[in-house]
Amino acid sequence: PGEEATPSCDIGDCSPGALLVLVERPGTPSSELSVRSHPICWGMVRVLGWEGLGAGLGAALAVSPLTQDSLSFLFYSGWVCAACHGPKLAAECQSAGYPGTLIPYKCDLSNEEEILSMFSAIKTLHQGVDVCINNAGLARPEPLLSGKTEGWRTMIDVNVMAVSICTREAYQSMKERNIDDGHIININSMNGHSVVPQSVVHFYSATKYAVTALTEGLRQELREARTHIRATCISPGLVETGFAFKLHDNDPERAAATYESIRCLKAEDMANAVIYVLSAPPHVQIGDIQMRPTEQIS
Amino acid sequence: PGEEATPSCDIGDCSPGALLVLVERPGTPSSELSVRSHPICWGMVRVLGWEGLGAGLGAALAVSPLTQDSLSFLFYSGWVCAACHGPKLAAECQSAGYPGTLIPYKCDLSNEEEILSMFSAIKTLHQGVDVCINNAGLARPEPLLSGKTEGWRTMIDVNVMAVSICTREAYQSMKERNIDDGHIININSMNGHSVVPQSVVHFYSATKYAVTALTEGLRQELREARTHIRATCISPGLVETGFAFKLHDNDPERAAATYESIRCLKAEDMANAVIYVLSAPPHVQIGDIQMRPTEQIS
Amino acid sequence: PGEEATPSCDIGDCSPGALLVLVERPGTPSSELSVRSHPICWGMVRVLGWEGLGAGLGAALAVSPLTQDSLSFLFYSGWVCAACHGPKLAAECQSAGYPGTLIPYKCDLSNEEEILSMFSAIKTLHQGVDVCINNAGLARPEPLLSGKTEGWRTMIDVNVMAVSICTREAYQSMKERNIDDGHIININSMNGHSVVPQSVVHFYSATKYAVTALTEGLRQELREARTHIRATCISPGLVETGFAFKLHDNDPERAAATYESIRCLKAEDMANAVIYVLSAPPHVQIGDIQMRPTEQIS
Amino acid sequence: PGEEATPSCDIGDCSPGALLVLVERPGTPSSELSVRSHPICWGMVRVLGWEGLGAGLGAALAVSPLTQDSLSFLFYSGWVCAACHGPKLAAECQSAGYPGTLIPYKCDLSNEEEILSMFSAIKTLHQGVDVCINNAGLARPEPLLSGKTEGWRTMIDVNVMAVSICTREAYQSMKERNIDDGHIININSMNGHSVVPQSVVHFYSATKYAVTALTEGLRQELREARTHIRATCISPGLVETGFAFKLHDNDPERAAATYESIRCLKAEDMANAVIYVLSAPPHVQIGDIQMRPTEQIS
């Protein structure tokens, strides 16, 4: 590993999608993995997608108990740009010598049929899902007093419904294969714990409050089902991603300013949190990590 | 007032709907109002609908500052059965001599177009809405590990989307008429504050966590807009309504048992909470009332 | 009732103390009670003490189920100034024709021995306590990075320890007399639910977070003990009392400014909340009322 | 490193105390450190004390940005048994070849004067404190309805007052040496976030709710002071320590049973959380890690 890939992609092409990462050589020491930076691919996909393949999820799986004696299948939802979606990205991963295989799925997460088809294809082609990371999420700048219903609905569809559907499908996939040490990780937000006085994220905050409840409810149901599958959410403050550019898609300057006022969390900080959570011993369930940029005030 | 009306209705006919209560004689002392019990109409509609007309909302409006020198229009969403929906109910109210006029609207709250049509009709016929009580809400018994998407979506549509749409429309109605002392009340739940180990209400709990955030976000936006319109949620534990019968619609015995184990909150307890909140002086904003049956353990 | 009493008192004389209100004529209709304003006595004592005797606690007990067929003894802790402490206040109450008798106790609430002596005297002289309102509370302006330990300890002693001791003693008093419908009300704060960026109230906020937990723990223990005694907290935002004058005792202008920026909650708003909570039917337990001035932003 | 030390100690000797760990060779790769288990020393001291010296805090400091070009001084409070308190432990650490020097301080944390003397000695002898871990904490089995005041006060003194005093002293130590990248870590509890129906931990829960507020208040004050010092709490569920033996000191069987029903968190799981938090880049502030045993139900 080491050299840079430079796929051409653009934020305008991004949409919520999903990746499946098949780790073919579990147990690879993390020191053999390297960090690659992807210069273009905006949004949370940077966190755990391309860049994350080396340093993030790849490493996470390499150290995860899941990978000791079997292949592991990690499902990850996120913003995926068109150019990263094709075989090009997978080929680059392969040529870079990563210990895992990237299998991108194109999927509109706001469409349940597409999600179900994807999980069906995953089952047919790759057995199933052992780890599910519900990372796709978005905000639309629609205040409660004046917002457009369509923007609210989009947030509900991706942040709440898709999370719930993927969680259920991933759990059923684990259950039918008797996976007892799976993991479901919801990327939440500090907005899922307190409501800040910014009207453009109020409805978003409501969807993330729902994620807080969904994660705890999931934990309880997993206990009731007597499995050791773990449920976690990670609740970041301001992360430098394409999030603000999606939020303020008519005002890129405002979006950029969001990330310039303080030193923000980075994609790899999120990846490190995921690694920490996944690599904890099976008897340790991290329920929530609340993290902010050190300089963030509210 | 005093005699009993006995409209024929049945729980099977109930669906989320809305009532508009026009108070024609504001300022009527609450001692002139009487409590009527409605023997059939299940569900939360009992709280503030028929029964509430006398003792609940009627009284609330009678003592509310809103009613000092003008007509007041109160919008209330709830479960409404078909038989209560027609002119029969309104006629009974009139003949009973209530100081307000009940104007029922038939409206599928999970359909935005119907909500918008209703608010448009309210504007044309009755000026607008001064007080909005988002009471309609439901649970479907769909756990997170195995639930049906459709049940989840119904909960989202009524508990989150309809609340948000009605709130926005009510606020816009207040704004265009320069109403500065309006009130928006969301009927939340103790499930909106903590997640209890009952898988059948986990998704419901997520929708109510969203309501918690929506109410606080609304409060902040109302402050930012420099109005004195108030935002409140009321968070009950177990209330004896048709809720459990809707939740366990295939298992009425289980539903009935829900209300027999302890002495539950009653419809009028909810009405009294609404009265307390509405009748507080304009400078007092009750943000949340958390209330449980005294005997409720969890 | 009606004429004004004007005891001479001064904020400098105030200290945490307690009142016992003996309601000799329970069931007196609240319409026979009148509101009196006390012009001098600063602090939360105004809420439920003197002024409250007519309109607040007196009314509350008059409508409380507790008072149907027996004397009721209400214990109330608050800031009490020296001049109000003596027989003068009690005499004024009597001559004003209130339906209850005020029995002031001088008690340093930060001294457990004094509290125990007081409860012992209450038992000997007046049977015991049926309703306990833990209202005494204070803030000292000691930030976490630089505060004086003594100020922190004073807050702990009054806001946490005295609340816990009075609660235990009141419960034991109810238990030994087989009172099953008692009530313990803790005056909490919105600072008990979220931490606002004002360093002078950070430690205070920690003591009020403790009160939030104490109230819920109390509720659970009362259920476990199979009683119907109720546990409530009331969580106000900014109330116009002597609180700020105690907080900024070196800077009365700053204290005064606290209450001038917005239209604050008043003593009677707190009394009304207590009345609402106490007069709810025995099967209704209000766990928390969160209330702010309508104009309060944070 | 590698061989086992077997200091003789006993739980009866344990009391809240403090250790200062001086890392003389910062930057030592964690791979050169090894895990040692201490067979006797009960309680949370196992987490980060002896055992932690190799694998826990030592490693944490070895990877912490703090240690790049200077000595680092880490202050840690915990349960320390008499036998571990003397020079014996320090000598063993030295002979084991650890890259840090252990400097035990005997200190009754419930006595402010002793704390101040300790910090004064630390200043004179070792410059000051760069990282402060407030780990000492305890529960006494005193329910709210019937508990002894003394048990409550002990919990307040150690869990709230000592945390606050050590935090203030540590911050002042950082401030006077212009340390901008210090860290204060409070060991909180899941009981600091929700109240569970176990009366023996209700007051304990109140003290931990206070810690939740103290940590967020601290974060805000550190931002207001424009430093990059970080504030973190870690909130574990059931950890296998001496905690239950202290709680049920009259009933060791009950204490032991606490840890046998499920597979608990271990001391090293706590150490790993501390390492994760400390080794995050300076711009990343982990505010809270909520973690439970995977099998823990409530």
UniProtKB/TrEMBL annotation, chains A, B, C, D:
CDD domains: Mgc4172-like_SDR_c (cd05343). SUPFAM superfamilies: NAD(P)-binding Rossmann-fold domains (SSF51735). It catalyses: a 3beta-hydroxysteroid + NADP(+) = a 3-oxosteroid + NADPH + H(+); 17beta-estradiol + NADP(+) = estrone + NADPH + H(+); 17beta-estradiol + NAD(+) = estrone + NADH + H(+). One of its GO terms (molecular function) is 3-beta-hydroxysteroid 3-dehydrogenase (NADP+) activity. Pathway: Steroid biosynthesis; estrogen biosynthesis. It is an enzyme of class 1 (oxidoreductase). The keyword Oxidoreductase applies. The keyword Membrane does not apply. Signal peptide: none annotated. Keywords: Oxidoreductase. Pfam families: adh_short (PF00106). Its EC number is 1.1.1.270, 1.1.1.62. Belongs to the short-chain dehydrogenases/reductases (SDR) family. Catalyzes the conversion of the 17-keto group of estrone, 4- and 5-androstenes and 5-alpha-androstanes into their 17-beta-hydroxyl metabolites and the conversion of the 3-keto group of 3-, 3,17- and 3,20- diketosteroids into their 3-hydroxyl metabolites. Exhibits reductive 3-beta-hydroxysteroid dehydrogenase activity toward 5-beta-androstanes, 5-beta-pregnanes, 4-pregnenes and bile acids. May also reduce endogenous and exogenous alpha-dicarbonyl compounds and xenobiotic alicyclic ketones. This is Dehydrogenase/reductase SDR family member 11. The gene is DHRS11.
